[in-house]
Structure of Neutral ceramidase:
Amino acid sequence: MADSSQGELEKLAPLPTSEKVKSPAPALEYPTMALLFTGRARSALSIFSIFALLSVVLFGAIATASPGGKLHKFQKLADADRQSYLIGVGKADITGPVVEIGFAGYANLDQTGSGLRQRLYSRAFIIADKNNPSDRFVYLVLDTQSGDTAMRNGLLDGLKALGSDYAVYGQNNIALTGTHSHSGPGAWFNYLLPQITSLGWSQQSYQAIVNGAVLSVQRAHESLQEGYLDVGTTDIPDGAINRSLWAYLNNPEEERAQYDAETDITMTLLRFQRASDGKNIGVLSWFPVHGTSLLGNNTHAAGDNKGVAAWLFESAMKNDATAADGFVAGFSQANVGDTTPNVLGAWCDDGSGQQCSLENSTCADGKSQSCHGRGPEFQALDLGAKSCYEMGRRQFAGAQTIYDNLKSSTTSVSGSTVKAFHFFQDMRYFNFTLPDGTKAQTCPAALGFSFAAGTSDWPGAFDFVQGDSGAPNNPFWSLVGGLLKAPGPQQVACQQPKPVLLDVGEISTPYAWTPNIVDIQVLRVGQLVIIVSPSEATTMAGRRWKAAVAKEAATFLDEDPVVVLGGPANSYSHYCATPEEYDIQRYEGASTLFGRNELNAYINLTVSNLHYLQPGSTGTPSQGVLPPDNRKNMISFITDVVQDNAPLGKSFGNVLVQPNLTYNIGDVVNVTFVGANPRNNLRQEQTFAAIEQQGSGGTWTQVRDDSDWFLVYTWRRTNFILGQSEVDITWETYGNAQPGTYRVKYYGDSKALFGGVSSFVGTSNSFTLK
Ligand SMILES: *[C@@H]1O[C@H](CO)[C@@H](O)[C@H](O)[C@H]1NC(C)=O
Ligand SMILES: *[C@@H]1O[C@H](CO)[C@@H](O)[C@H](O)[C@H]1NC(C)=O
Ligand SMILES: *[C@@H]1O[C@H](CO)[C@@H](O)[C@H](O)[C@H]1NC(C)=O
Ligand SMILES: *[C@@H]1O[C@H](CO)[C@@H](O)[C@H](O)[C@H]1NC(C)=O
Ligand SMILES: *[C@@H]1O[C@H](CO)[C@@H](O)[C@H](O)[C@H]1NC(C)=O
Ligand SMILES: *[C@@H]1O[C@H](CO)[C@@H](O)[C@H](O)[C@H]1NC(C)=O
Ligand SMILES: CC(=O)N[C@H]1CO[C@H](CO)[C@@H](O)[C@@H]1O
């Protein structure tokens, strides 16, 4: 294994706890989803009868590269020499049920929503060939854990329902990516495994995302106009570290030596500029860093660090003369697999003051539970909120640097060709040939033992141990846990050297647990080539994949190709590690579903079909066998809202705790109302919470809403039987507040036991902020 890296291990010195991080701690593993498993699992190697708690990490990625790694050619062209396209951008609210639904990402059963810090959005970007407008694609960036087959089918259905104008969008040209936030409502996945910790499927959660995604495409479509595309890059050296360095170090030394860092630190940004007046209508960037700044015990929904970055950028553009109204900033995920925003490294919260082990991310007790990654503001003890803001700010600052540089020197996207290809590939025993002529094969999906341990972004709730580790309290798992089967000899051999813990690809009762059939998709406009990855490619996996695609693209492009990788997209397919990383079987390798050759298969499938992106190429690959559409079969233990009631003598929206008369900037304003369940009405494109400011004439104007990071909505049930609840609206005035006279508004909706839903408004007393 990686004995040669022992030296590096010894060199790791304890980190100073200062804010500015230059060389963060070694990468550790961070678990994202902890699944509770009980039942009997047998493997060929060992038999264990168990109740074991597994943690599953769901992470995703996008990355960027030209063959040389960076863009060097900057030139300013006159408009007449610039290639123009049809371009459109659109944004819509996808915020689902923010309370009483398990969050998607960490697979932590206890991480059930209790409110909203920042609304979630879908941002859509359409690019079409001006002369042949049916050659187009739409790239969506959703503030979700990933793209997914169920929501993609929902989006396809929704666009179809919009009529013939939208018939131009279909399987081939829709790329549905998630930012990989781990702090949004879950229960919308097409497959069973990620549903376990959300207690199944929520139609409301699913529909909220689909409706917003459709609306964002509609808005982008309606805004289509002639415009230009320019691309730029910058490095964000403090934007992430590698959390699985031990596995990364198993990649060949010569290969690692080609790169400055153990994660891809280059952000690539595409600027959308309309021709009519030269104003910019949007930007779309790619940068890899996990959406795990908010911790696995945060229960307020938010778009994590990329949600912050997008909000900061869009806010800045409201006062920028170069930006058009309705400017949309998409911060897409890249080769995210082994990256973490916890840039101060992973530490043992066991009083030892030690970093977790490089090899296994364990602490002195040999377990991973006390190993936690630290964000730049970890000392705030605020469930990651300040660290999240800071990691978002760093990405915003990087994007702004590129945006500013593009004002004076640009690399235009050129060449009229806009193309996309997409097909479904069944990964079960897919045979292909490696570039050196060797035969290779992928396998039915399976997860290895380290999947259960989670990562240093959030360890598994229990270490996976052989033997009884206590009965789980999960009705969903009680229903399905017994269905797991031991893998047969063919699967065991195929998955080598992964010891199979969960043979998820060979169970389809009650429906498929993970994808075996994945989306293979690549998009192209001019020299920009976008690999759309269903899996969370690790840093090196992304680099290899981008380099292989760039090499092939260079055979038919006039310009140097600029290749980015976006994901996790279309069908969430866990991880994609390099074969060398796979051999180490840390979390990312254990979560590489289709075996040691997964990356090579993805490379084979994309490179072999790249000719579909050539100018003049007609047709598309055969779509392949469609993945199962489980939307009609879903199981759920999620209960609906029964009723809401106000306490005796009170009404919904009454203020229970008024604000103080005066505050100083920096204080936290906290007002409590008689509340009702926000699942009664998601108030998409509206708000639950608002701050109003009093003008000189005494009139009140709304100045903050749910889109603001520093305005937080919290819902709390106070009496289950009577359906009573309270809502706190909290304004963190250290963020972006100005002196003035303000009041707090709460917009809610209550459900009668036998009757409909009625809306109400609560208004606090006014207060002065000095
Ligand atoms: C949340 O998790 C972090 C990391 O384990 C821990 O330090 C913190 O105490 C937890 N906070 C709460 C309120 O449970
Ligand atoms: C890491 O785990 C492996 C497998 O359990 C074990 O052999 C090794 O000693 C562990 N290493 C450390 C540093 O704990
Ligand atoms: C791949 O090759 C193996 C060995 O020849 C064969 O058993 C398997 O069926 C092939 N896979 C497919 C999908 O045809
Ligand atoms: C992919 O594998 C197929 C089947 O073995 C082979 O014919 C093809 O050349 C490979 N493509 C690439 C780009 O390596
Ligand atoms: C609001 O007033 C209460 C009661 O006087 C006081 O305890 C609290 O510190 C005040 N809050 C702020 C943020 O000033
Ligand atoms: C706001 O007030 C409520 C009710 O008094 C309290 O439960 C909650 O912890 C407070 N929140 C903050 C952020 O201070
Ligand atoms: C960006 C990056 O890769 N960061 C860190 C990865 O881990 C090594 C070893 O701890 C650090 O030196 C890098 O700075």
Observations:
- Residues 660, 663, 667-668 surround 2-acetamido-2-deoxy-beta-D-glucopyranose (ligand 5) (CB under 6 Å).
- The chain has a mean pLDDT of 88.
- Residues 385-408 form the longest helix (24 residues).
